[in-house]
Amino acid sequence: MSDVHDLFRLAADYAAQFHDTLDERPVGPRASYDELVEALGGPLADEGSVDADVVSELIAAAEPGLVGSQTGRYFGFVFGSALPASVAADWVASAWDQNGFSVVTSPAAAAAEEVAAGWLAELLGLPDGVSSGFVTGAQGANTTGLAAARQHVLAAAGWDVARDGLAGSPRIRVLAGGERHVTIDRSLRLLGLGSSALELVRADEQGRMRADALRDALAGSGGPAIVCAQAGNVNTGAVDPLGEIADACEAAGAWLHVDGAFGLWAAASPRLRHLTEGCERADSWATDAHKWLNVPYDCGVIFCRHPQSHGEAMAVAASYLQRADGRSPSDWVPESSRRARGFAVWAALRSLGRDGVADLVDRCCGHARAFADLLGAEPGVEILNDVVLNQVLVRFDDDDETTREVVGRVQADGTCWLGGTDWQGRAAMRISVSSFRTTSEDVERSAEAILTAARSAAAAVG
Amino acid sequence: MAHVTALAAARHRILERAGWDLARDGLQGAPRIRVIVGEERHVTVDRALRYLGIGSAQIELVPADGEGRMMVELLPDALAGGDGPTIVCAQVGNVNTGSCDDVTAIADAVEGTDAWLHVDGAFGLWAAASPRLRHLVAGSERADSWATDAHKWLNVPYDSGLAFCADPEAHRAAMSVRASYLEQSDADAARDQMDWVPEFSRRARGFPIYAAIRALGSTGIIAMVERCCGHATHFAELLGAEPGVEILNEVVLNQVLVRFGDDDALTQATITGVQQDGTCWLSGTVWRGKAAMRISVSNWRTSDDDVERSAGAILEAAARAAGAVRAQ
After folding, report:
1. Do B203 and A298 touch (CB under 8 A)?
2. Where are the alpha helices (DSSP H) in A333-417?
3. Contact (CB<8Å) B21/A194
4. Rounded mean pLDDT of A159-171?
5. Is B54's CB within 8 Å of A77's CB?
6. What is the pLDDT of residue A220?
7. The domain boundary residue, chosen from B203, B234, B259
8. Which of A122, A458, B1, B167 gives the lowest tally of CB atoms within 10 Å of its CB?
9. What is the DSSP letter of A268?
């Protein structure tokens, strides 16, 4: 560990150079998984190596297997990018090696989370006084929110799940839209609620839960019930009718959880806020900062209207964990020792400001509409969804095989990267725009590459 | 979350053995799970179980000895004292004393039953890396699952924990999901990380771990673990030589519990004095009803000089605290 200055400078210089050359880099990986395991692999060495050599070798071995999520032309999944200020803040957090467990383990980390969570709640239009926790992602946020829900609805039925567990408890009904995200199922499984406890409520053609179907399903239900609504369908970007869903939950005494991994960010834009209207009436909210806020992986956030149930579901207490006054970050999340996630979020929000976040969200949605316009104008190309947010589903020649072929050709071409999906039984190309770096030129270049791939695919398939 | 992951795999497997489909039917109506743990287990085990829908009333405590180790001679009776799907949690590295359960005896007791053996080795499992200390965790290799941290003794940045499971099928079944838009790898062709953890989108934790292992090599890891334990022993010698200062634990690993004047208030005042002084930082705990200073050595940077300076500062704080008490 001879020269820490040179080592850290090596990493910073490389990162800056990587940043400068993003535009020339292929957007997809160039090496296969097996090749990467081979490049990184070998036996565990007895002797260590010089730190700078280790980092240089890691860069050389890993680089061919990177995906271009830092470029403006990565449209796979909903990845977001990473704002420079938040990347640098995250480096500093690592250099500090702060443990975000409690006020005692790092007052700075606890304070940054407290401040950043307050700013986020305000941006997302959530009520005053919500409890919050920084977790690994929306998966963890969904699990945490649903754990608070489980605690709360069973307590209302006279059952202490923290003490007595779920075996023998009153049965919980969980209702979610037919097009909910798969993380909901996984969170429920983790919490001990099996797939048979999940009742699917019919979704419309955009993937939105139908509020009338929810009302019918809840009618006559008196027992513990949890409703999982969605802001931002992973394929279409559609947002459930949250106001009507909140009405139905209120009437039935059900807990309303909103999975808003990326869609909740519509609330940060005055132009798009109408999409998430009613979401402020929910009991818990899950979202990601590493997606649309463009902070580095990983960072999800849970908010809850019922701090007591949230705390009872999550908090630890033991004699060696000295409490100080203030908010103990780990009381609101399932982790104990944790990365100090608040620093990167704080930096992202400071660098963008309220207007910058709104602009980022609006710009991504504008790019999605531009994609739909450019691609939809071409004969044989169909846009399958109403492009209300940042998602575009594209189908070619109304044919599964052709569509999958186009996706494969675009991935091989390397101008941009995007994935495929099945939407209501039909293959589709899935474009997600969630990077602060994406420009109109990126969209035009990418649309052109997609259309070129479509023409060659049509020729090959036809 | 390593506990959550491993115990979710355990829950899946033991309920399957009892003929219950957990993924479909959940825990409501399922056979009641018993969890047998040492009285001095870490709180994260309780929290992980609560998360998984297993309540505190389902946790059965086996008394611990003076070092916090599960009294293994009581385990067979505990196992025989009930029936149904059972998980046994052993601990290597008590958070206060650093002591390790006798995992060989625990594995012997569990063998032949249908119980799942989980080892909480957040930091203590790293003793296995050292030929000199490996005996402390002997028998751990017979467990069904293991939880440990890389951000502790491997000294990578927060956060990075690891779950290992001897039953990959149960591990994967407890964690994996499929969705059409994910373009997931064929299970036989490549390892998609999301199939083995409770997270979805995640930080790429492998890079810093890879770099730490490459930078240290196994020799360097062994040296780091042994050096930390040597420093702990050194602390115990320097402090324990002072009249009125008592070392409450056998310093087998990296943990030292120190008590001053056999008095809670004096011990607490000494801890506060050290925290205010700023030469070093350490915290307090309550061990078996007595206040104690808790010293943990787990940093690659700690040198002999650091230990000597810190011990000096602690003894000065103790003297100041004793003087203040006398003056009252």
Report:
1. yes
2. 342-376, 400-413
3. yes
4. 95
5. no
6. 75
7. B203
8. A122
9. G
